[in-house]
Amino acid sequence: MLSRTGRPLAAVLFGPIARACVKLHISADTITITGTIAGVVASLTLLPLDHLTVGALVIAALVIFDNLDGQIARLTGTASKWGAFLDSTLDRISDAAIFCGLLVWAYLHADSSYVEWILIGGLGALVFGSVVPYARARAEGLGMTASVGLAERADRLFVVLLGTLLTGMELGDWIMALTMWILCITAFATVIQRMVHVKKQVKTLANEGKL
Length: 211
Description:
By secondary structure, this protein is mainly alpha-helical. The chain has helices at residues 2-5, 7-23, 28-45, 52-65, 68-76, 81-109, 115-141, 153-168, 174-207. The protein has one domain: Four Helix Bundle (Hemerythrin (Met), subunit A) (Up-down Bundle), CATH 1.20.120.1760.
């Protein structure tokens, strides 16, 4: 998945910037919070105002920039459970802002033939997409794993931003409708995959007498 295969490339691209931030005494938490605020503002202004192309590019740059905080934490030896918690929590806010911005855009600007499809698919993608990381966090809180599935965060972001970019290029609002339904279905499938994965672990532990 993109979240795993993209990390080595991001480390190479942002290594120099991370080292510069360390020299300037810019903390990982500062980068996390700043990136989130910028992403939320971009999502809730550019997208609803029908600037889809610019919005997709700006948000994509900020999503890539989000890798920087982890590198800074590792370079400074300040990686912590608090930092991981903060990053994951703010990621949920950033993701929700993107979908909220697109739903408002659909209501205000989308072709009437596709508005309902975009809104319903988008709401489904937002709901199931929020359950995907929760399922993993809950499983890990119970001492199990759930890092499986079709659509992890990086995959969902890639699809939604690509769909936004193509729609903004006036190739047709049907692209946004298709994008939302792809995200809705794959997020739902990922939730089911994680539930099945955890169920198997519970059964194994029960058979071993560890539960």
